[in-house]
Amino acid sequence: MASPPVVRFAPSPTGYLHIGGARTALYNWLYARGRGGRFVLRIEDSDQERSTPESEVAIFEGLRWLGLDWDEGPDVGGPHGPYRQSERLERYRQAADRLIAERKAYRCSCTAEDLARMRSASPDPRAFRYPGVCRDRAVPADVRHVVRFVMPATGTTGWDDLVKGRIEVANETLQDEVILRPNGLPLYNFGAVVDDVDMEIDHVIRGDDHVVNTPRQIQMFRALGRPEPRFAHLPMILGEDKKKLSKRTGTVSVLQYRDDGYLPHALVNFLARIGWSHGDQEIFTLGELVAKFDFDAVSASGGVWNAKKLDWLSSHWIRQTPVPGLADLVLPFLGSLGVADCPRERLEAAVALQRERAKTLKELASGIAFYFQRPLVLEAKAAEKTLDADALARVEALAQSLELVAPFDPGPIEAAVAEFLRSRGLELKAVAQAARVALTGRTQSPGLYDVMSVLGRDGTLARLRGARTAPRG
RNA sequence: GGCCCGUUCGUCUAACGGUUAGGACGCCGGCCUCUCACGCCGGUAAUACGAGUUCGAAUCUCGUACGGGUCACCA
Questions:
Q1: Which of chain A's residues 324-353 bind strand B, using a 7 Å CB cutoff?
Q2: Is the CB of A236 under 7 A from strand B?
Q3: Over residues A387-403, mean pLDDT
Q4: Where are the CATH 1.10.10.350 domain residues in chain A?
Q5: Is any atom of nucleic acid chain B found less than 7 Å from the CB of residue A301?
Q6: Tens digit of pLDDT for each residue in A106-155?
Q7: CATH class of the domain whose range is A323-373
Q8: In this predicted complex, what is the ipTM?
Q9: Is the pLDDT of residue A450 over 60?
Q10: What is the pLDDT of residue A127?
């Protein structure tokens, strides 16, 4: 019905990209991409104390890893720049001057001490609101001052939230906020509004914690003579303890999930589904998310982070990833396990087998490392349990009967093993686990014939025969 | 404490006044089977509480309880 939306993600660069921010960014991105809109990235670094360039880079990196690209932003530019608040000071000054000229804002020379005094003298210090003592004082521009916004004292301010429905707030609960510091840096509410105006943002999609800021910002939009955007306030993501998500309750850094071996799309799928739904569907491709995402199905209540479900999604998407690409992705994780030399063909064969068995790339790597490790170190407990003298003898005899198998593929191998068992009157169970431990060093692995095939004849025979003397640890 | 928001299985959620309250993750059992995983089958488990409106309420209204957000010259 309307023209394509213009949305923004506006993090403050005071740390890494965390889970909550990532979901906010994702919902903005999905909304824009699903409707041919624009996604703007703006850096809100108006707090000089806390903002760092490193954080900005980390946020870019997190967004890029998730695949959330932006149409305008500090690094790519755009027609509404600059996109860093610290570079937009002139704009805030101009806007504030205009408001002052129109008597919609004023200079205030009250000091922090003045404020503290007034607060403690008020009947209920916790409910203290700045009483506007400088409103009519005509504080000269050359005395140290902040700029305060003239907030209406009566009436109500309300909006139809895309997620929460109608919200109304009595204006008497608002106060004359500081919008500009003495050093010219804007405060959050003002900077965001001026930027949203300049950048033509028409949908503000952000966390629940901003609901209280919305009426103030609406008043500022109106004072600047601009229509306010639509607002969508996303519920919080809670930790498994149902408290606000924090480091204490689990991993909150997006890049940490990358380093832990999660596929970015698994995280995207999970993030999309925490707080939004589409009937009974759990698995979504990116294209489906873009096509189906809308606010009518965004939940109004907070959602608890469910690491197990992320794992399930992650294992699903690992199984869906084509083997060659997956092999590329697993390489760095193999490297950090000390595996450097893995022939491409065997690597891909190993990945194809292990893909069904891994929740993360990290698990995938540790699941296939045994193919490439030399010497293979047998898990002590596994070896002790399955490789007694009889078993060792059987495993060595098995090696003997595999010597002439050709080609060394699962089918022929299985036939040779069957023949071996028949000639000795054994059941597969009698040798399988011992062979498995000899070949892989552990008690769990893909099917034996598949493992042997990947290992190749030489590798297979060497491991079966070397089990007796293989290092254990 | 003021203001604002929220409340369906343990968790994510479906249901948009009429369903035996559905699905998914997890968990438990079974099948498959050389182990593990995958897959398949089955099971466990929820409308916070109380009034009201209605022929009929998880759905609408009010209250209570509980939870959360926020009260900065942070964002």
A1: none
A2: yes
A3: 95
A4: 380-466
A5: yes
A6: 999 999 999 999 988 888 888 889 999 999 998 999 999 999 999 999 99
A7: mainly alpha
A8: 0.96
A9: yes
A10: 83
* A279 Cβ within 7 A of any nucleic strand B atom: yes
A307 sits within 7 Å of strand B by its CB: no
Adjacent-strand bridge partners of A74: none
Q: CA distances (Å), A62 to each of A132, A207, A259, A463, in order?
A: 43, 18, 11, 43
Q: Counting every residue, how long is chain A?
A: 473
Residue A47: nearest nucleotide (C-alpha to C1'): B74
The distance (Å) linking the CA of A299 with the C1' of B61 is 22
Is residue A185's beta carbon less than 7 angstroms from any atom in nucleic acid strand B? yes
Q: How far is the CA of A17 from the C1' of B47 (A)?
A: 36
Strand B within 7 A of A13 CB: no
Smallest CA–C1' separation from A144: which nucleotide? B73
Q: A247, A309, A381, A385: which one is catalytic? A: A247
**Whole-number distance in Å between A278 CA and B16 C1':** 14
Determine what percent of chain A is predicted with pLDDT higher than 90: 90
CATH 3.40.50.620 in chain A, residue ranges? 1-73+235-320, 88-234
Using DSSP's 3-state secondary structure scheme, residue A302 falls into coil
The answer to whether A104 is a known catalytic residue is no
Residue A72 C-alpha from the chain's centroid: 21
Calculate the average pLDDT of chain A.
Answer: 95
Give per-residue burial for A28-38: e unless 16+ CB within 10 Å, then b: bbbbbbbbebb
Residues 59-98 of A with CB under 7 A from strand B: none
pTM of this structure? 0.96
The answer to whether A238 CB sits below 7 Å from nucleic acid chain B is yes
User: How far from A115 is each of A109, A127, A135, A458, CA to CA, in Å?
Assistant: 10, 13, 15, 82
The nt closest to A13 (CA vs C1′) is B75
Q: For CATH 1.10.8, list the domain ranges present in chain A.
A: 323-373
What CATH fold (topology level) applies to the domain A380-466? Answer: Arc Repressor Mutant, subunit A (1.10.10)
Bases of chain B with protein Cβ within 7 A: 1-8, 10-14, 16, 22-26, 34-39, 67-75
CA A324 to chain centroid: 25
> What is the per-residue pLDDT across A173-206, written as a single tens digit (0 to 9) for each?
999 999 999 999 999 999 999 999 999 999 999 9
CATH of A88-234, one of 3.40.50.2300, 2.60.40.200, 3.90.930.1, 3.40.50.620: 3.40.50.620
Distances (CA, A) of A412 to A85, A287, A401, A404, A463: 68, 43, 12, 10, 19
CATH class of the A1-73+235-320 domain in this structure:
alpha beta
Q: Are A231 and A162 in contact (CB under 8 A)?
A: yes
